[in-house]
């Protein structure tokens, strides 16, 4: 039997989409009474199902998979555990048939109604205390309802439910949902409704219902306060909405971004997003600096000493004319502005606090976005899952260009083929080859480090040379131009060396292309940071000692670097993309059209931004240059991209790269810039002759002076106190550090715990899968044996027979195994199952199922079939009776253990029960399928009873499982990782 | 755009905002685009106005999408299952594909789009169709039957946690949650 059609149940939506299991809790009553003898299963259904399942068969491939899946399943789970003895009580035999008269009595009277009504109608909604978990369960409901519509229909037909039943059930669902929603606050509710995976009309309906409910409630207790708070919240919400609207309107380059995304996909788009993000940083910094530092300066002292004429070269060098302007630190005065009767504007404090605040905000924004993207993209990424899904589910829906789509398809198919062959190739690699690889790694690393160190040294000597040149300079144009040498070399190194590094790609062999990208990024970062490190060292040691107005000199140096970097970026995109495009298309065809190298380009941006951050203290208006630079760069890159490049061949991983880039921007870049600034502010004496801090020992002493002044002002006592006892006290930092370390430790422990929990839950799922597979196999065996029986001739009226003893035996066997399995799996919890009720319940259920199935199969296989006289006339009902008995037992046990056992590990009982339920259901389907061919046309009316009975049982079993689920929800709540558990449950059921 | 705004009405607009992940502007834009596709004589959008699948698919954003028909079918509320969309269905579509939609929603709809036979589970047939959709139907890009079998086996090995031979919604969501690129790529911008 091939895998995809080995049972109709596989193709039954309701079986898989366990949410749908919910929908038919009540209906059996109806089909029992309303339709006792009519066939509730239209014949077509089975046929359709079969047909469909045939369609699913792979072109000749089904068998392999099925072998694979079954081969590993059946006994492994049972055998790997050694302790199975003690706690598993000997398997009790079912009460023999003779003991069941009382039950039979029951059966004849109340039949299957047992306590269904009670169960059904009174199921209270167990609401969890916290809103979040409430939301979770609600979301779950929502998706459950959702699943009613598209996929549930076939299942409903199969179960023979009338439309009324479905409708009732849905109404009930909806009612619960609405009740939950009404209990929420307005904001939560809006969010919750929005998160429901339903169609718009349904959401609207739900919302309407909730509003009606709400207004009804409101009218009962309506008072002024509620009204007021409502208006306030409403206006707040409006305000928030307007703010976001304004943000939307300001959205820059929306069309361009869309075009780029449509042609080149998300990966390349992320470069442009990054660029835009950095641009926002710079615009903000410009606004802040201009508003709080430059404008006051210009207002108080608008005359710029224009002794030097503007020559044009200043645009490149930043010296000369610009030297005394507000572009640099030197252009600011140290006086407090303002007349005597107006409050003063202290330039020193303004300068210090503006830059400090900007850096602080930058840091906060970086940490925030870094943490967010780490949470989204890194935490759940596990390395074991490579391959196929990654490729399949990252199809870029952004891409709208016809050609790009075709190209993407090509690339994807190549990648898929590669991933298939990779799996085979990776296994074998001789030792000599591996050694060779390691040698190559070592060589390339040594070489790249040597190059970085060499560049650093060269730049250091160049700095020394420049220092002397500036000392000797006579102010001529040539002398001024010679200052451009250093930035020129630095930018050249930045352009050429990365290209050199990328040549290593040809000789290095990595098992993982991602690894390769990381290594290249790492090398480039090392290079850039060593260059910047050398420059900073030169500035804070040599320059700070030698020049009278050294801050302005550093500012000029940074200005030159920024401008030169800009020019080289333009050149870079010319050489890097345009030239290689020309070469690739005209000269050497094999090179092909170049791809846009996201990593290199982003690193360039990061480098540029680092320069801007370092420069903000020395040259407060440097962000202006940076803004112009990024603005031009955006259009330049866009044109270069669309003219010269092709979409990237390798899809995926864009998100992770983005995270890495933000991390790099934070760690060496931002942290480096901040530490340099901090060093400058706290230890280096500012220059004597210029700038706002002239005459002070360090920049920070401006704050000391301010505090000292404040001591005389009564109203500002607290500021002084805070400064002296918090900012300046070691104890405070010591305590803060201690507390943070403790918190880190606690959170770390929590994550460890959660990791364990995840592992456990995964194992659990796997085990459930094994259980299911095992039971399925058992079932198949049974069916095979049934099929192999000689099929007697047709003769209706005679009924099947008591052949239960072998069947029973088998069932018992199965039950025993189940118990063992059950017992084993329950050790996952903290406690061993000292009370056996958990496992008993489920195993009893299994038993019941098996029995029932057996009964049904008997009924099925002999249905409409003649019976030799040698079978004692005990009829299928006996088997059924047994099944019912077992079920009852299960029920009573259920009842019994539900109430008094709070400490039981809830994780265990629940899924297994559910599994059985699903199984039973699936089995019922299966029977349906199988019954069809045997059913002779004239025997239509009699086989219904057992089948519908089976259905009944399934329903009840499901209902019970449902109850169990409800009742377990509460004990689960105190768990540490309760939320997670909930999620797991919901995901699974 | 001013005219469309007045056409939509304030209450309706705020309702749309509340029930979808779209902003006011996006809704207005969607409305504009939707009306443009309607026949010239009758350009008033009512809740019952339906655009046929062909019309919807003529939009450049969906035109070359390999899943365009599936998308229409999944979001259509039409009784005849012809994939036609009302304006609200259309908003639903855009909302699920918008930037701010949650992973939950996105994965839910992705699952339904990939579930070609609408049976609530991704089985071998669905996966095969999915792969064919993504690699294109031409002979040189198509995988050979052998490769396809191997691939599907890999996929199931990777994601079929309970080993029942199919990928159900929760398993699919599990896979998706480990694929960080999904959220950023499952996106359609008008």
From TrEMBL, chain A:
Residues 1-47, 783-806, 820-843, 887-908, 928-989 are annotated as: Disordered. It comes from Umbra pygmaea (Eastern mudminnow). Its main location: membrane. InterPro entries: TMC (IPR038900), TMC_dom (IPR012496). Residues 793-802 have a biased composition (Basic and acidic residues). GO terms for cellular component: membrane. Residues 1-12 have a biased composition (Low complexity). It is a multi-pass membrane protein. Residues 549-655 form the TMC domain. It is found in: Membrane. Keywords: Membrane, Transmembrane, Transmembrane helix. It holds the Pfam family TMC. Belongs to the TMC family. This is Transmembrane channel-like protein.
TrEMBL record, chain B:
Gene3D superfamilies: EF-hand. Residues 102-137, 147-182 form the EF-hand domain. One of its GO terms (molecular function) is metal ion binding. SMART domains: EFh. SUPFAM superfamilies: EF-hand (SSF47473). This is EF-hand domain-containing protein. Keywords: Calcium, Magnesium, Metal-binding, Repeat. It holds the Pfam family EF-hand_7. It comes from Umbra pygmaea. InterPro entries: CIBP (IPR051433), EF-hand-dom_pair (IPR011992), EF_Hand_1_Ca_BS (IPR018247), EF_hand_dom (IPR002048). The lineage of its organism: Eukaryota, Metazoa, Chordata, Craniata, Vertebrata.
């Amino acid at each position: 039997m091939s895998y995809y059609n080995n049972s109709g149940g596989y193709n039954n939506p309701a079986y898989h989409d366990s949410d749908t299991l919910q929908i038919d809790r009540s209906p059996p009553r109806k089909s029992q009474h309303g339709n006792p003898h009519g066939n509730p299963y239209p014949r077509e259904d089975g046929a359709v199902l079969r047909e469909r399942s045939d369609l699913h068969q792979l072109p000749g491939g089904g068998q392999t998979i099925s072998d694979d899946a079954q081969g590993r399943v059946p006994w492994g789970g049972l055998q790997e555990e050694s302790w199975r003895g003690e706690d598993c009580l000997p398997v009790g035999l079912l009460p023999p048939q003779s003991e069941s008269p009382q039950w039979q009595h029951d059966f004849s009277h109340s039949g299957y109604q047992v306590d269904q009504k009670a169960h059904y109608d009174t199921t209270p909604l167990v609401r969890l205390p916290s809103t979040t978990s409430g939301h979770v369960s609600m979301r779950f409901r929502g998706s459950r309802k959702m699943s009613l519509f598209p996929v549930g229909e076939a299942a409903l037909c199969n179960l023979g439910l009338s439309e009324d039943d479905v409708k009732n059930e849905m109404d009930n669902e909806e009612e619960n949902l609405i009740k939950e929603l009404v209990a929420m606050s307005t904001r939560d509710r809006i969010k919750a409704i929005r998160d429901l995976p339903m169609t718009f009309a349904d959401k609207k309906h739900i919302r309407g219902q909730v509003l009606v409910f709400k207004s009804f409630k409101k009218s009962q207790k309506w008072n002024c306060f509620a009204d007021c708070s409502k208006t306030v919240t409403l206006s707040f919400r409006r305000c928030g909405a307007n703010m976001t609207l304004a943000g939307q309107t300001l959205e820059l380059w929306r069309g361009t971004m869309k075009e780029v995304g449509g042609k080149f996909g998300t990966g390349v788009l992320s470069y442009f997003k990054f660029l835009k993000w950095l641009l926002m940083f710079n615009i903000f910094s410009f606004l802040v600096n201009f508003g709080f530092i430059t404008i006051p300066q210009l207002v108080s002292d608008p005359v710029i000493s224009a002794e030097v004429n503007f020559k044009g070269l200043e645009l490149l060098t930043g010296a000369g004319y610009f030297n005394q302007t507000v572009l640099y630190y030197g252009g600011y005065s140290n006086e407090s502005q303002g007349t005597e009767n107006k409050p003063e504007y202290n330039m020193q404090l303004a300068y210090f606090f503006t830059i400090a605040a900007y850096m602080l905000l930058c840091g906060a924004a970086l940490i925030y976005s870094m943490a967010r993207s780490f949470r989204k993209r890194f935490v759940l990424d596990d390395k074991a899952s490579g391959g196929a899904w990654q490729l399949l589910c990252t199809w870029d829906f952004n891409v709208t260009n016809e050609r790009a789509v075709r190209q993407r398809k090509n690339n994807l198919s190549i990648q898929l083929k590669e991933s298939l062959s990779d799996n085979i190739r990776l296994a074998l690699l001789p030792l000599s080859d591996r050694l060779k690889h390691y040698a190559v790694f070592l060589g390339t690393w040594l070489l790249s480090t040597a190059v970085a160190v060499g560049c650093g040294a060269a730049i250091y000597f160049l700095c020394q040379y420049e220092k002397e040149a500036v000392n000797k300079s006579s102010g001529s144009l040539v002398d001024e131009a010679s200052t451009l040498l250093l930035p020129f070399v630095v930018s050249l190194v930045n352009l050429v060396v990365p290209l050199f590094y990328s040549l290593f790609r040809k000789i290095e062999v990595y098992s993982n292309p991602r690894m390769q990208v990381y290594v290249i990024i790492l090398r480039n970062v090392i290079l850039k940071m060593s260059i910047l490190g050398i420059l900073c060292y030169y500035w804070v040691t040599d320059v700070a000692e030698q020049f009278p107005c050294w801050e302005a000199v550093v500012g000029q140096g940074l200005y030159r670097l920024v401008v030169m970097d800009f020019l080289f970026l333009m050149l870079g995109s010319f050489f890097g993309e345009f030239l290689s495009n020309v070469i690739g298309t005209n000269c050497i065809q094999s090179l092909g059209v170049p791809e846009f190298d996201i990593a290199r380009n982003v690193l360039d941006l990061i480098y540029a931004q680092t320069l801007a951050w370092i420069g903000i203290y020395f040259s407060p208006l440097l962000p202006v240059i940076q803004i112009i630079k990024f603005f031009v760069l955006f259009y330049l890159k866009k044109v270069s991209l669309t003219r010269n490049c092709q979409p990237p061949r390798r899809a995926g991983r864009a998100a992770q790269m983005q995270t890495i880039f933000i991390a790099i921007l934070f760690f060496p870049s931002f942290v480096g810039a901040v530490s340099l600034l901090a060093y400058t502010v706290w230890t280096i004496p500012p220059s004597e002759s210029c700038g706002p801090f002239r005459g002070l020992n360090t920049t920070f002493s401006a704050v000391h002076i301010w505090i000292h002044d404040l001591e005389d002002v009564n109203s500002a006592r607290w500021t002084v106190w805070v400064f002296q006892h918090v900012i300046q006290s070691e104890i405070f930092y010591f305590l803060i550090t201690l507390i943070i370390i403790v918190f880190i430790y606690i959170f770390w422990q929590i994550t460890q715990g959660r990791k364990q929990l995840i592992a456990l839950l995964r194992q659990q799922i796997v085990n459930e899968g094994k259980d299911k597979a095992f039971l399925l196999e058992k079932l198949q065996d049974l069916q095979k044996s049934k099929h192999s029986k000689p099929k007697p001739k047709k003769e209706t009226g005679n009924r099947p027979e008591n052949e239960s003893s072998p069947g029973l035996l088998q069932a018992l066997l199965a039950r025993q195994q189940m118990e063992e399995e059950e017992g084993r799996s329950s050790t996952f919890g903290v406690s061993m199952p000292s009370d056996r009720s958990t496992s008993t319940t489920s195993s009893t259920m299994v038993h019941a199922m098996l029995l029932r199935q057996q009964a049904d199969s008997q009924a099925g296989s002999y249905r409409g079939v003649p019976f030799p006289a040698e079978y004692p006339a005990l009829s299928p009902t006996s088997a059924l009776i047994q099944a019912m008995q077992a079920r009852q037992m299960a029920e009573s046990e259920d009842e019994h253990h539900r109430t008094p056992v709070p400490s039981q590990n809830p994780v265990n009982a629940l899924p297994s029960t559910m599994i059985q339920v699903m199984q039973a259901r699936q089995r019922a389907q299966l029977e349906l399928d199988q019954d069809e061919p045997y059913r002779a046309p004239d025997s239509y009316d009699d086989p219904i009873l057992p089948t519908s009975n089976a259905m009944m049982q399934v329903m009840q079993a499901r209902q019970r499982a449902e109850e169990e689920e409800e009742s377990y929800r509460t004990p689960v709540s105190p768990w540490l990782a309760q939320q997670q558990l909930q999620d797991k449950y919901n995901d699974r059921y | 755009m001013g005219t469309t705004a007045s056409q939509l009405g304030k209450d309706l607009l705020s309702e749309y905002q509340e029930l979808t992940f779209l902003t006011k502007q996006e809704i207005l834009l969607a409305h504009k685009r939707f009306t443009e596709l309607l026949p010239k004589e009758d350009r008033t959008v009512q809740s019952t106005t339906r655009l046929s699948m062909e019309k919807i698919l003529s939009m450049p954003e969906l035109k070359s999408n390999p899943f365009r028909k599936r998308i229409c079918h999944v979001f259509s509320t039409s009784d005849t299952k012809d994939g036609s969309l009302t304006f609200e269905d259309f908003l639903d579509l855009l909302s699920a594909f918008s930037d701010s939609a949650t992973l939950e929603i996105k994965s839910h709809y992705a699952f339904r789009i990939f579930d070609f036979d609408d049976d609530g589970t991704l089985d071998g047939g669905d996966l095969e169709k999915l792969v064919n959709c993504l690699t294109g139907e031409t002979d040189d890009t198509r995988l050979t039957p052998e490769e396809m079998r191997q691939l599907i086996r890999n996929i199931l090995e990777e994601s079929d946690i309970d080993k029942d031979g199919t990928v159900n919604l929760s398993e699919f969501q599990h896979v998706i949650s480990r694929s960080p690129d999904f959220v950023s790529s499952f996106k359609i911008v008008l």
